[in-house]
Amino acid sequence: MREVEAVGSSSAFGRLLGLEIIKAADGEALLRLAMHDGLRNLHGKLHGGALFSLIDTAMGQASHSLNDGEPNSVTLECKVNYIRPVTEGELTCRAWVVHGGRRTQVLEADVHQGEKLIAKAQATFSVM
Question: Is the pTM of this model over 0.90?
Answer without folding.
Answer: yes
